[in-house]
TrEMBL record:
GO molecular function ontology, one term from the record: ATP binding
Annotated region (Disordered), positions in chain: 164-183
Organism of origin: Nocardioides dokdonensis FR1436
KW Protein transport (keyword) present: no
Taxonomic classification: Bacteria, Bacillati, Actinomycetota, Actinomycetes, Propionibacteriales
Family: Belongs to the cytidylate kinase family. Type 1 subfamily.
Catalytic reaction list: CMP + ATP = CDP + ADP; dCMP + ATP = dCDP + ADP
Class of this enzyme: transferase
GO cellular component term, pick one: cytoplasm
Entry EC no(s): 2.7.4.25
Protein name per the record: Cytidylate kinase
NCBIfam families listed in its UniProt record: cmk (TIGR00017)
């Protein structure tokens, strides 16, 4: 396998998804959104009527749903037990519940296994861009290119609110900050800048400028 792995971590709403999809498209790589997998698990847990704060139940049931990621950067997909949940996983209900579900070690172990299988598949071709919170530190520590994307919370909230069609900026900022706090503070695989990662603060750059910088970093590796 001659493909490359590009590991992209960072805070919620730092522009990771748009950046990673554009970079993967430009370089002919696959694209894996691991946040979508944690959201899919959370959607399924909620569907079962399980309390997301009951970690032992979440852990015990986390092996049940079949979660399948489609890794084409022009139209990534996510299915749970054969159902396309691409829209459902972006609901406020799932967004509000995903961080506690993501703290459960059994959930992480299961999803990391699936993520490594997708990375192995991507390496059969040109490679794969993988985005999340623990990609450079835990999922793919051997990745030759690692990035850590952040942005000013107010800028992130404004972007996210615009994406969501003019939802409340202050509420969005509060939700982002709260997810960052849980994601950074958890015991297992906290959000952290991986060793060897390049830190990009995207606050004052356009998407295109960030994409250009990342593409240049990947090309410098090849
Ligand atoms: O990237 P996105 O905002 O969709 O991720 C949703 C949530 O999934 C994050 O807030 C985090 O709690 C969790 N997550 C994680 N590890 C990853 C990717 C996402 O814990 N690798």
């Amino acid at each position: 396998d001659t493909g490359i792995v590009v590991a992209v971590d960072g805070t919620s709403g730092s522009g990771k998804s748009s950046t990673c999809r554009a970079v993967a498209s430009r370089l002919g790589l696959r694209y894996l959104d691991t946040g979508a997998m944690y959201r899919a698990m959370t959607w399924w847990i909620l569907e079962q009527g399980i309390d997301v704060h009951e970690a032992s139940t979440v852990a015990a049931r986390s092996g049940e749903p079949q979660i399948v990621s489609g890794t084409d950067p022009s139209g990534p997909t996510i299915h749970v037990d054969g159902r396309d949940v691409g829209v459902e996983i972006r609901s406020d209900r799932v967004t509000g519940a995903v961080s506690p579900v993501s703290t459960v070690p059994e959930v992480r172990a299961r999803l990391v296994d699936l993520q490594r299988a997708e990375i192995a598949a991507g390496l059969q071709g040109a490679g794969i861009v993988v985005e999340g919170r623990d990609i450079g530190s835990v999922v793919a520590p051997e990745a030759p290119v690692k990035l850590y994307l952040t942005a000013d919370p107010a800028a992130r909230a404004a972007r996210r609110a615009a994406e969501e069609g003019g939802s409340d900026v202050a509420a969005t900022e509060q939700s982002l900050r709260s997810r960052d706090a849980i994601d950074s503070g958890r015991a297992v695989s906290p959000l952290t800048m991986a060793e060897g990662a390049v830190h990009l603060d995207t606050t004052s750059y356009t998407l295109e400028e960030v994409v250009d910088q990342v593409v240049a970093l990947v090309e410098a590796q090849e």
